[in-house]
Amino acid sequence: MSVADNLQRLTGPYEQRSWLQRIPAAWWAVAVILLFMPVVANDFWLFQVMGWTFILGMIGLSLMFLAGYGGMVSLLQMTVAGVAGYMVAILGPSGANVSLGLAWWVVIPAAFLIAAIFATISGALAVRTDGIYTIMITLAIAAAFFYFTRQNYSIFNGYSGFNLVLPPKLFGVNWRDPMAFYYLSLACATLCYGAVVYISRSPFGLALQGVRDNPRRMAALGFNVTAHRVAAYALASIFASTGGILLVWQNAQIAPGTIGISAAIDVLVVAVVGGLRRPLGPFIGALIYVLLQVFSADILGLFGFSADRFKLIIGIGFLAIVLFSPDGVLALWDRWRARVDARKAAETRGAP
Amino acid sequence: MNAPVAPARMNQIGAGQAGSGNALELRGITKMFGALAAISDVTLSVRPGERRAVLGSNGAGKTTLFNCITGDFLPTAGLIRFFGEDVTVFPPHERIRRGLRRTYQISSLFAGLSVIDNVYLACVGVSRNRFSLIRPRPDDALMHAANMLVDAVHLTAEKNRLVGELAYGQQRQLEIALALSGAPRFVLFDEPAAGLSPTERTDLIHILTALPNHIGYIIIEHDMDVALRVVESVTMMHNGRIFKEGRPEDIEDDPEVQELYLGGGHG
Ligand SMILES: Nc1ncnc2c1ncn2[C@@H]1O[C@H](COP(=O)(O)OP(=O)(O)O)[C@@H](O)[C@H]1O
Ligand SMILES: [Mg+2]
């Protein structure tokens, strides 16, 4: 890996075209499809498939930010999302009587803030370790939080968690209505994605990639490497929290199971399958994951397996990706494009 | 800690009063790697703006001395003052922010970034923009500074090339640019001329002599011809100890030095 993985140069000859003109045609096509999907897609597709894809994508994006740019593989991102989700349930109204029922404009900022504090403290513990140890310490924190929520009844309502956690009826819209939820999660995902792309070329983002590639040199340039890493955890928490809050609203509930070890690992799987090097990767991974989850019952049925074996398919897919394309399906796509381009170039050269 | 280095200390050139007025002051610096003393009881002071060469055969402890000064390694014993401030246990970035800079004997660059981006990163590191989430605009002040530095090390034509694609000599020049970002007060050059062609050496000498007067430096350099043209004082190291200090011409003519260093397959 190197700082320029993403082929995004911070500087270079300045583009004459405006940023709007620089967006490739394929992106416009995707934008049109996403914007007009509600015209053709049914509620299940909008709410379950796409809504969940965006949510999982945002949580995966927070991992991509840490791992792809910062070189820190954190298994903590689902937990950070869970902290934000839990805060929405605890501070706001819900069906459980331990909820405080505060107004949304207190609850949502507080959820982001508390999740950010949690991520910062956990990050401060994790950044002093490397590689496998980072994975282990973040997994340990995730596990500790999971068991804590299960055993604590006074705040987290223990095993049963919270139900009837509904989004506020802002602007008179029921945000759990499938179309409204679809657009809400699409907007959040787009914002998070755009933020990561933008930040990757900011001084902070560039320095984070420098820290990943050569921490010692970065220190010799005046950067506080530890502070940079911890700040990355704090920043990544914003994307995870956005996903976590939407997740509670989508399910209308949160319980320890939402943030269990297997959920933490699913986020890793999603990000790795899609590709950890680019912000788009986790969203691709999330779509694949959700489609497999939703349709594996049919596929598995054909082979006489029961539907709950869908993790087997995911597992095999994960294995295949790690073995054949460690940079995820996006890298497969890149390779295919490169081959097509090479062939085209060869044809033009061959022409008289 | 007196006896072994006493002759060296007597030779100090223009050293000010103890603790005052020196850019860099080392007292009794020792660095052990296990049982090996890479440097032992090194005492040295350098005035602001002074330019000094550190000579010594391979393994003499020159790079280790640099690593102790920059904080890459904490010394096993001893005291380091930078412009009067005790920085002995400061982390590297705190020393860099106070105006200390270094280059590496083995180029330590960001190969996947362009030349200008490498220098920009160095400029950001000693600015207040380290945590900025706002992308630089074309008229960005730090970017402007980075451009000037790229020009100063004669890499203007390579500005937008990836560092990994540069020739060896150009990478060495870029190392120097990174060390001159912000407002350097004192620079440590670790064998900047090693592996350079004669033309590139001349270039290097020009870059070093063109530095503003107030910027002092220590340069580790095997090539006496280069070293003696860019410094006003010389420290000889041998087996981790300071062996001799003096003016370049005295060192060059010193029979002991000739015996130990120049006759020993170097230069
Ligand atoms: N990180 C290290 N770990 C162990 N030994 C080291 C380390 N760095 C240097 N040394 C040893 O310290 C001695 C001095 O090395 P160095 O400072 O690199 O010498 P010079 O730069 O003068 O050639 C050598 O014997 C070297 O092997
Ligand atoms: Mg050396």
Explain this structure to me?
The complex is a heterodimer of chains A (352) and B (267). Chain A has helices at residues 19-22, 25-40, 43-69, 77-91, 104-126, 131-151, 178-200, 203-213, 215-219, 225-251, 261-274, 281-302, 310-324, 329-350. With 352 residues, chain A is mainly α. Chain A has 2 domains: 42-277 and 285-297, no CATH class; 310-352. In chain A, helix 5 (104-126) packs across helix 6 (131-151). Chain B starts with 5 loop residues before the first helix and ends in a 5-residue tail after the last helix. The radius of gyration of chain B is 19 Å and the shape is globular. In chain B, helix 4 packs across helix 5 and helix 4 (115-125) packs parallel to helix 6. Chains A and B meet through helix 8, helix 9 and helix 10 of A and helix 3 and helix 4 of B. The structure holds adenosine-5'-diphosphate and magnesium ion. Residues 33, 38, 56, 58-64 of chain B line the site of adenosine-5'-diphosphate.
What's the structural blueprint in terms of helices and strands?
The complex is a heterodimer of chains A (352) and B (267).
Chain A: H1 19-22, H2 25-40, H3 43-69, H4 77-91, H5 104-126, H6 131-151, H7 178-200, H8 203-213, H9 215-219, H10 225-251, H11 261-274, H12 281-302, H13 310-324, H14 329-350
Chain B: H1 6-10, E1 24-33, E2 36-46, E3 51-55, H2 62-70, E4 77-82, E5 85-86, H3 92-97, E6 100-102, H4 115-125, H5 141-152, H6 168-179, E7 186-190, H7 198-209, E8 216-220, H8 224-230, E9 233-238, E10 241-246, H9 248-253, H10 255-262
Parallel strand pairs in B: 3-8, 3-9, 6-7, 7-8
Antiparallel strand pairs in B: 1-2, 1-4, 4-5, 9-10
Helix pairs in contact in B: 4-5, 4-6
The structure holds adenosine-5'-diphosphate and magnesium ion (MG).
